[in-house]
Amino acid sequence: MGTMGLETMLIILAAITGVLAVVGVLVVYGTVAKNEWGVNLDRVSCPRCNTPAPTPPEPRSFRQARWGEWTCPVCGAEVDKWGRELPSVAPCGRVMSAAQFGAVLKKWTIITLPAGYFTLSLLFYWVRGWRPSTWVEALFQLTLSIVETAIFTVLYLLAWKLFERFFLAKKGRDPR
């Protein structure tokens, strides 16, 4: 196993700092311009019927979940995180109930989270300088990443179940 040089660490640190700076600029600009990238900490209500937004908002589509939007439970208006009414989604957009969305989100995270962890595990080995020189070493590295990913996935599913059981049950929501 090789060691990572100071130059490599500085390049990685500069890349991470650059990405974080770009994200920070997007968030600050989005907050000032009141667009999707911004952060709104104020309570909002429906512009049609003045119903307060549910806390936390219950999205009915991936677009709503991604940008902090919600659907008014009283009049059905789609509202953004700033309290502005959005044009209704075209018929091709998929709208689902909160329970359906929760089930889809759970399946999506069960697939993508382990895949992302596996990729980051291999990337971590590569950044640390452990590059296999033989097929046996490569197979060992892949096996080790698969085992780490399996352990991570089991722990994640256990945490999800505990969250559903203790947090969602206390709020009176159906965890399914």
Summarize the structure.
The protein has 176 residues and is mostly helical. It contains four helices and two strands, in the order H-H-E-E-H-H.
Q: What does this entry look like structurally?
A:
The chain is an all-alpha fold and 176 residues long. The protein has three domains: 1-39, no CATH class; 42-95, no CATH class; 98-170. It is built from four helices and two strands; from the N terminus they run H-H-E-E-H-H. It has a two-stranded antiparallel ribbon. The relative contact order is 0.08.
What keyword list fits this structure?
176 residues, two-stranded antiparallel ribbon, 2 strands, 57% helix
Radius of gyration: 22 Å
Mean pLDDT: 80
Strand-residue proportion:
under 5%
Give the strand tally.
2
Coarse structural class: mainly alpha
Which word captures the global form?
flat
Number of domains: 3
| Tally of helical segments | 4
Strand order of the largest sheet: 1-2
Give a quick account of the main beta sheet: strands, pairing sense, barrel closure. Answer: 2 strands, antiparallel
State the end-to-end distance: 46 Å
Order of helices and strands: HHEEHH
Helix content: 55-70%
